[in-house]
Amino acid sequence: xxxxxxxxxxxxxxxxxLTVFAGGLAAGRLPTFPALAAAKTDPSLAAxxxxxxxxxxQVIVRATNPSSGAAEALVRSDGGQVMRRLPIVGGxxxxxxxxxxxxxxxxxxVTRVWADGKVRMSDVNxxxxxxxxxxxxxxxxxxxxxxxWDGTGVNVALLDTGITPSPDLAGRVVDSVDFxxxxxxxxxxxxxxxxxxIIAGDGSLSNGKWAGVAPGAGIVSVKVAPSDGSTDVxxxxxxxxxxxxxxxxxxxxxxxxSFGTDSTQPYSVDPLDYAVEQVWNSGIxxxxxxxxxxxxxxxxxxxxxxPYIITVGAMNGGGTLDHSDDVxxxxxxxxxxxxxxxxxxxxxxxxxxxxxxxxxxxxxxMHPDAVVGTSYFKGTxxxxxxxxxxxxxxxxxxxxxxxxxxxxxGILTGTAMGYLAGSAGGDGLVNAYAATxxxxxxxxxxxxxxxxxxxxxxLGSLEASRGSFHVYADSDGxxxxxxxxxxxxLRGIPWVANSWDANNWDANNWDANSWxxxxxxxxxxxxxxxxxxxxxxxxxxxxxxxxxAWS
Length: 551
Description:
With 551 residues, this protein is an alpha/beta fold. The protein has 2 domains: 28-115, Alpha-Beta Plaits (2-Layer Sandwich), CATH 3.30.70; 126-441, CATH 3.40.50.200. It has helices at residues 4-26, 35-39, 43-51, 70-77, 101-106, 117-120, 138-141, 191-200, 233-245, 247-250, 271-281, 362-366, 382-399, 405-415, 432-441, 462-466, and strands spanning 56-63, 81-86, 91-97, 110-115, 155-160, 173-178, 218-223, 252-257, 285-289, 310-316, 327-328, 346-349, 353-356, 371-372, 376-379, 472-473, 482-483, 520-521. Strands 5, 6, 7, 8, 9, 10, 11 and 12 form an 8-stranded mixed sheet that branches. Strands 2-3-1-4 form a 4-stranded antiparallel sheet. Strand 14 and strand 15 form a beta hairpin. The termini are far apart.
C-alpha cells in the first residue's frame, strides 16, 4: 500500500530529478553519466547519448541473466525496442532513446552496452547509396567491353562469408570450404555472394546485363564468417593456409580478400601480413580491399597495408563518361601506412555496383532499397572495387597463364589510368583493356613490382594484428563465450609466433574441421571494413556490426 507520505516523497524526488534534467538540457547537454553506467557503456556511445539526447541509438546489450528477460523488459519500459536475440554473447540488439541509455546501463540487469555502427559511422551516411540508380557505366570506366578474354581456366579464391547458389554462377563454384560452425558453405550474410557475382557472374538472370568482370572464371569459396559477418584474424590465417594447400588441386590463381583490421603493427612482423605474403609467394595474386575508413590519411586496413599485395580503393564516375567528374570516394581508405608506405595501389569503381542478391540474408533484409529486380543488389565500397580488380586479374591470367604475381602487379599499376593517381588513388584507375593487352602481347614492357622489399617475418603479435576488433567465442565448449584476445587463436590454442614459417604450414594443422565447431559473434566488429559499413552501417543491426572490420 502506498501511503500519502511515501507518495509525497516520490513526487519530491521526481521533481528534483526533473529540475536537474531540465537544467542539463538548458545547458545543451545531458547530466553526466553516473559512474556505474559509464563503466558499463562504450565511451563513444555515452558521448553520443550526451551530445544528442533527442536521438535513438542502436546498441548491443549484454544481460546479467539472459534467461530472465529482465534486460529486455528494462529496454522496453524505457521506450526502446528489442531487435534480435544474441545468445552467443548473452544478450540482444536494440534501439533505445539516447536519454534512457544511462538508466539502462546502470541497471543490475545489464552487464555491458556496446555501440553499433550507427554511432561510429555517424559522420558518413552510406544509406544514400541505396537510393542512387544502379551503376551501368562502370564497365566502360575500366574499358572492359573491349577485352577479348572472359577468365576461362582461371579460378579465384573468395575469402568471405560463403556463396549462395545462383544460375549466374552455375557450374563455376569449383570448390568450397567452411571454417564456421554453420558448416554449410552457404552465405547467410550476403557479402560473399555479391562479391562472387562481381568477379565471375555471367548475368544469366538478367540476359547478361548484370554480368561480372570474368564470367568464365571459377570461384573457390572459402567461408570464414557466419551470418553475423564476423571473424577473427586467426581464422583468416588458417583459411589462407588452406588456400595454399589447395592451390594446385583447385587451380587457384587469384585471392580476393575483403577482410581488414585497424591494426598498426608494422607489416614486417605482423602474422596476417606474413600470411598473405606466403599466399603471394606461392604464385597466387592477392587482391585486398583498402577499407572504408577514409577520407583521413593513415586508414588503410591490414592486410591491405602489406607492400607486396595489390590494395584497391574505390572511385565513382559520377554517372557520366566524362572524366572531369570522376573522384576517389571519400570513404575509401588511404595511406600512408604505419610503415610510411603509399597505398592503395590503384582504384576501381565502387559505387552502386549491381551484383547477385542473397535473398533473406542479413544485407538483403536490412537494405530493401538496394534490391534490383528480384535477383540483384546494389553495393558500394572498396570490397566491390577489389572484386572488380580480382576479375581483371583473372582475365590477364587467361591471356597469359605463366604470369606471376609481381609481374601482374607491375602490369596493373603500369597500365592504370593516371588521372586519379595520387595519395588516395594510387597509380590510378584500373584499365582492363590495357592490362590484358599488355599481359597477352607485352608482358615484359612493365617491370616486375615489389623489387627490393623486405618480407615480413610474422613474428609479431596476433593480438596486435587484431587492432581494436575482437570477437567472442565459446572456444572451450562450456556454453559461455569469451572475448578472444591475447596470443591465442579462436580455438583457444596458444599462438607461438616463432613456431611458424612457410615451411611449417602443414595443411593438416589448418584443416577447416578444427575451426568450424567454434561459435563466435560480431559484437566487436565494425562494418567499416567488411564492406559492410557501406551498406549503411547507420542502419545495420549492432549484433552484425560493431563497426570496423570488413571492406
